[in-house]
Amino acid sequence: MKIDVLTLFPNMFHGVLNESILKKAQEKKAVTIDVINFRSYSVNKHQTVDDYPYGGGAGMVLTPQPIYDAVDDLKEKHHTKNPRIILVCPQGETYNQKKAEELAKEEHLIFICGHYEGYDERIRHLVTDEISMGDFVLTGGELAAMTIIDSVVRLLPGVLGKEESHIEDSFSTGLLEHPHFTRPREFRGMKVPDVLLSGNHQKIAEWRQKESLRRTWMRRPDLFEKYPLTDQQSKWLEEIKKEK
Question: Which of 163, 197, 216, 217 has its CB surrounded by the most CB atoms within 10 Å?
Answer without folding.
Answer: 216
